[in-house]
Amino acid sequence: MGRWWGTRQDGTRNDGRSEIEKPIDNNELGVASLRSETSSAVEVDELHKPAAVNESISISTEKITVNSSTRMPVQATTSSSEPTVIRAGLHLEGNIRTANDVLLEGSVRGEVSANSITISAGASLSGIVSATTIVVDGVVEGVIRCLKLQVNTTGSISGEIHHSILVVEAGAIIEGTVFRSDRMIEAMAPTFDERIEEAQMTSSPEAYTVINP
């Protein structure tokens, strides 16, 4: 419905009060309907449009396989027993029997049997000493039985010595009787082996007395 102003075909004028009906164009209606449906479809599509999904990054790592047949070389280690150390300032009286080495820095009075015995400078040993190797830098008094005896410059020995190999440095002091005999060493060896075996079977060495200087 609408109002119009103007002159009619019969010569009369319209003052704008008369209403006329404008015919509805079906084409325009269809276009309007199509626009409406299209707009609605767009709105629906916008509503149902899935949210943006972050791109997933897949990282492929190579699997490391270990061949059990391949082994790293392992160096064989040999365990060596630490020597029995008698510290400086200690004085022992008694018997010491061990299958290990003995390092004497103090003083001992008695019988000592070991694999090897080292008497350090300033140390002293009085008694019977039996070992495969004996190194003297200190003072020894008594009976020495060994396969190899080494007396260094500061070493001093007085007594009876039974040996197979004797090494004496310049300045060393030896007073007493020295026996070098393979037969005597062979005769001594079983006794020494028995003492070492006994020391290995014994959980603790024979008791000895500690005398503080």
Write a structural description.
By secondary structure, the chain is of the alpha/beta class. 20% of the residues lie in helices and 41% in strands. It is built from 2 helices and 14 strands. The protein has helices at 26-48, 182-201, and strands at 2-7, 13-20, 84-86, 91-94, 96-97, 101-104, 107-113, 116-119, 124-136, 139-151, 156-163, 165-168, 173-180, 208-210. Strands 3, 4, 5, 6, 7, 8, 9, 10, 11, 12, 13 and 14 form a 12-stranded mixed beta sheet that branches. Strands 1-2 form a two-stranded antiparallel sheet. It is globular. The chain starts with a strand and ends with a strand.
Please describe the structure with a list of short key phrases separated by commas or semicolons.
2 helices; 41% strand; two-stranded antiparallel sheet; alpha/beta; 213 residues; disordered C terminus; 14 strands; twelve-stranded mixed β-sheet
Write the element-wise H/E pattern from the N-terminal end onward.
EEHEEEEEEEEEEEHE
Q: Largest sheet, described in full? A: 12 strands, mixed
Distance between the termini: 138 Å
The tally of helices reads 2
